[in-house]
Write a structure and sequence with these properties.
Blueprint: E1 3-6, H1 15-23, E2 29-30, E3 34-35, H2 36-42, E4 58-63, H3 67-80, E5 85-90, H4 95-98, H5 110-124, E6 131-136, H6 144-154, E7 158-162, H7 176-186, E8 191-195, H8 201-211, E9 215-218, H9 220-224, H10 228-234, H11 242-260, H12 262-276, H13 283-292, H14 296-309
Helix pairs in contact: 1-11, 2-3, 3-5, 5-6, 6-7, 11-12, 13-14
């Protein structure tokens, strides 16, 4: 199995963007993380839980520090929304998540990690869903082997490893060798998906070759190079022109507008503009101009004008 999948990223991997990424060839998509407690208190109406059939296979990612909360929230999501999988976040280093004891904080308390992961796995059993956990090498120090043993014991069947410590954030180079060590350790007992520093097509091939992993997860590069999934499907790099990128923005705009209406959709679209236009000649001036625009019509007019009148 060789999967290439979209990483969960807060603020970006909402339903409209996931639709675009599936159109470009991603095997699986992940929702951005949502609190199990929020699911229990506010129900299933949160936009973070929205998805449409074209996004499948989709995995909903939840976070929490209380096993009972995680079990109940997971059961609600599976019973009423029927995603293709559920994922526990045990890697997010954001302070607002850490202070609740969830996310990467679970890596500093392996007993709690076991019980929370077990709760997720138990909730998935009646629905025939494979549970997954996305985690890091450890909180302050590398404890990969201990963490993996805990997760396997809890019944987790898909291990998604971001090969950095939680305290490192993104400041260090991802240690791909540890992804290979994890795959060697678990063998056929679980799928291993590697994450970290995949920026271009050759990185995908290299991670598969170096680690023997079952899947490669792409995060930040999927924002600035969303066509990387198409490149993998085609088996070659693609030179995405400004016209091609405008087409991507247009498609994303269509998805956003259909879900959120033009005013809210326009605000979200602007978050993607600096990323999708990364590498375009004159990007700094163009992006500055586009982000100042107050309404969609003028935005598209200016983008079209720049494309038609820039020097070759």
């Amino acid at each position: 199995m060789r999967l290439v999948v979209l990483a969960p990223m807060a603020g970006f991997t909402h339903s409209p963007f996931r639709r675009l990424i599936r159109e470009l060839g991603a095997d699986w998509t992940w929702s951005e993380l949502i609190s199990s407690r929020m699911i229990l208190t506010k129900g299933l109406e949160d936009p973070l839980l929205n998805f449409v059939p074209t996004e499948r296979p989709i995995r909903i990612q939840i976070h929490g520090a209380d096993p009972e909360d995680v079990f109940k929230a997971a059961d609600q999501v599976l019973k009423h929304l029927r995603p293709d999988g559920l994922d526990l976040n045990a890697g997010c280093p954001a302070p607002k998540v850490i202070k609740t004891g969830a996310g990467a904080a679970l890596l500093a308390n392996l007993d709690r990690l076991y019980h929370v992961a077990l709760a997720l796995a138990e909730a998935c059993k009646p629905y025939g869903i494979l549970p997954s956990v996305k985690f890091r090498l450890g909180f302050k120090q590398d404890e990969l082997e201990r963490i993996a043993e805990v997760l396997l014991k809890a019944g987790i069947k898909i291990l998604v490893l971001h090969a950095r410590l939680a305290q490192e954030g993104y400041a260090t180079k991802a240690r791909w060798a540890r992804i290979g060590h994890l795959k060697q350790m678990v063998g056929k007992d679980a799928l291993v998906i590697g994450n970290g520093d995949v920026q271009k097509l050759t990185d995908i091939y290299q991670m598969f070759q170096d680690t023997g992993c079952d899947g490669v997860m792409i995060g930040r590069a999927a924002l600035s190079r969303p066509w990387i999934f198409r490149e993998y499907r085609l088996g070659r790099s693609i030179d995405f022109s400004l016209k091609d990128r405008i087409c991507l923005l247009t498609r994303l705009w269509e998805h956003l507008r259909a879900e959120r209406g033009p005013e809210r959709a326009f605000k979200v679209l602007k978050l993607f503009v600096p990323k999708i236009l990364k590498g375009v000649r004159g990007r700094k001036q163009l992006v500055s101009c586009l982000l100042r625009v107050k309404e969609p019509g003028l935005f598209w007019e200016q983008l079209k004008f720049y494309h038609e009148n820039r020097s070759p």
